[in-house]
Amino acid sequence: MAQAASKTCDICVSGPGHNYCEQCDQLFCDGCKISHLRTKMSKKHTFQSGPNINPEVKQYCKEHDENFIYYCMECHTSICKICVIKKHKSHDFAEIKESTEGIKAEVKKDIETKIKNIQSNIAEVDQGSHTYQADVKEVIQAIKEEGRRLKEMIDKKVEALINTVRQKDAKNVQNLQSVGNELKTALDKAKEQQNFYQATQGIKDTTKLLQKLKQIKSQIEQKEGIQIPIMPSVKYAQQKATESEIEKLFGKLTFGESVSREINPKPQKNVRFVFMKDIKRIC
């Protein structure tokens, strides 16, 4: 195996190894590279060129000191060409390079699928958040509307109660004023009779005095027809509504809790290998 640190041609061991053959895993100088590409078996080899090339470090079979070129499907391990003959002759195996390309394509697809799923989930969360916020605004508006409606009902009830008190008060006041006026009239008559009586104190004629007293007494005995009404009264017994009773006046709040779910399930492993039936036949 070529050592990148030496930077010398592995073929002529004299020129600078600025060209790395990816198939042969060797460093070539410019001249040896040209010769290598002119050879029929290596004319399609590919090179990395330049002073700062970094040759790929390949894994080798420690037992046979050979490159791993196959992958055993039954043993799930990388094997070299000698391992195929000695230990894995009857097993199914595939070329590492082709298998790697298959896995590479699947990894790329899995990543793209994962990104697509995450982007879809982000859009779903954004849409759900937007819908939820709209629901929150709608619920708040509904609560305010319910409160406004209940306040209107309370205001109407308060106004009705106050109007009832005022109407009853006006009627009672009118009745009391009427009785009061009658009593004032009766009082004036009584004072007038009192004045008549005082005027009789100066009469010396007994007959005349008796006549005046009988006249005053007759006026006093006349019924005035005034009935004193039972005094009106009014009270208000407060109803102390409890918190639970107030809650019954409103609707019910229902929350759908956010539940976590697996948004990026792990993709199932589905590695495709190209079976080397022809290689098995030659082994």
From TrEMBL:
State one molecular function term (GO): zinc ion binding
**What InterPro entries is this protein classified in?**
TRIM45/56/19-like, Znf_B-box
Query: In the UniProt record, does the keyword Transport occur?
Result: no
Q: Name one GO cellular component term.
A: nucleoplasm
UniProt keyword terms in alphabetical order: Coiled coil, Metal-binding, Zinc, Zinc-finger
Source organism superkingdom = Eukaryota
- Any signal peptide, and if so, which residues? none
Question: Coiled-coil annotation: which residues?
Answer: 173-223
PANTHER family xrefs: BONUS, ISOFORM C-RELATED, RING-TYPE DOMAIN-CONTAINING PROTEIN
Protein name from the UniProt record:
B box-type domain-containing protein
